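User: structure tokens for this one?
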Amino acid sequence: MNDWTFICRIDDIPVLGARRVARPQGLEVAVFRTADDDVFALLDHSPYKGGPLSQGIVFGAQVACPLHNWTIALHDGQAQAPDEGSTPTFRVKVVEDAVYLDGHELAHHALHQTRPLAGPALRAAHAS
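Assistant:
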């Protein structure tokens, strides 16, 4: 049996937008809402250089990465050709306008990705 974690009401996610969900470990999960009120969840990490997908533009059942304009399919996290790669997906369900994510996946899925370092953090990492 799945342990579903309540995240928010569907109306708390902007139409053609996203909401970020923090986790105790690992990167955030981005929960997306399409124009048809379909809801999808992906790790908030582009397969190309780790851009925050939650800040991208949602169109149809896809999101455009805000940093490099890669198009990622919301249903399976796959980059669309000619780009290659994928971002992890999370199981989501909507019951009576309440959005839930699989609690086990939130705790254990896709914990190895990290944010890319830039600016002062990158300089400090190279200095050590």
